[in-house]
Amino acid sequence: MGRVVLVLENLFPHPEKQGGPHLVITSGKGGVGKTTVSILVADALARGGWRVLVVSLDQAKHLQEYLGLGETNRAYRVDGGLWALQFDLEREAERFTQEYVMLLQQIMPGLKALNLEKYAEVVRNSPGFEEEIYLRYLEGLYSRREYDYIVVDTPPTGITLRILGLPGNYVFWLERLSELRERIVGARYVISKALGERPEVRDPVLDKLGELRQRYGGLRERLSSSRDTSYVVVATPEPLPVFEARKTLEQLRRLGATVRLLAANKVLPPDKARLLGVHGVQRKSLEELAQLPCPGECRRIAIMATEEPPHSLTGARRLLERVAPLQEVLSA
Ligand SMILES: Nc1ncnc2c1ncn2[C@@H]1O[C@H](COP(=O)(O)OP(=O)(O)O)[C@@H](O)[C@H]1O
Ligand SMILES: [Mg+2]
After folding, report:
1. Tell me: the pLDDT tens digits for 74-102?
2. Which contiguous run of DSSP H or E holds residue 122?
3. Is the Cα dihedral 210, 212, 214, 220 positive or negative?
4. Can you say whether the dihedral through the CA atoms of 150, 156, 159, 164 is positive or negative?
5. Substitution site in 4, 34, 36 for ligand 1 pocket (most atoms within 8 Å of beta carbon)
6. Containing H/E element for 158?
7. CB of 11 within 8 A of CB of 48?
8. Paired sense of beta strands 82-86 and 52-56, if any
9. pLDDT tens by residue, 238-250
10. Can you list the domains of the chain with their CATH numbers?
11. Ligand 1, atom 10: nearest CA belongs to which residue?
């Protein structure tokens, strides 16, 4: 336990008293131990006396199994200050679609039920729909003031990177749309004047565009602010996971985000690695992980592989005895 404290201590900034929870977002290729590391980090924080929620957005729903959570989309207390929630995309998507249908009904009361169904289906099957659901959910987490930290276990890397890039894309398009709208409003103004009418000065569309720009600009800011959000990247010492870690770190740098932890998981002891014929590959991958440019001067750790895969909170805790600074493992 003493070691762990050393390796994981003071990794994340203390959450602001009024500012809502600090988000810790864990990313990595499927199977590398994202869920495990999320639990590990959340547990370490909770045992440090904080109120912590670990949320899994991954639809493989391993967190639910791992911690024996009942229903999805509901937080369960796992231990002391530690809570856990398995997010269910399907259920949330259904709820969102229903809300959308209700909104449509309000705007266009004449719309037939059949047409409403059709609209709902189009929304449901639109590219980017799932990312939008995830993004809204992430946004909502920042206002869960009952927690000091929320550790987020993410869906597959590709989806995660798209989600994180969305607010910036939205802001870009909203700005272009606002420019267009301003031109339309300007032309309308000139025409009304010419016709001797009293031109409308306020434009509800421009107002709405402005409101959305504010909202997504704010979210982009939060996701990349070191005060509100920290990132954790996990990889196993193999070429593909290391490649994904590199891509993720590059994208996080572009977003201006702060990575506080880079974890090499399931590291085999040298004799075992030799026996399995992977010593060279593991060594090379670990060296690469030690050198990957990391936005935010992340701490680099190695977590040794256990014979018995951890599948419970106790199992995850056992891993804590196998955590060491990456440099130490490399020079051993
Ligand atoms: N250090 C480790 N040693 C041995 N098995 C591990 C270790 N870390 C994770 N595992 C096992 O690897 C599998 C994948 O881990 P998980 O955390 O679910 O990965 P991910 O969330 O990235 O898909 C699980 O069976 C887990 O028990
Ligand atoms: Mg997982």
Report:
1. 999 999 999 999 999 999 999 988 888 88
2. helix 113-124
3. negative
4. positive
5. 36
6. helix 157-194
7. no
8. parallel
9. 999 999 999 999 9
10. 2-88+139-162+225-323 (3.40.50.300)
11. 309
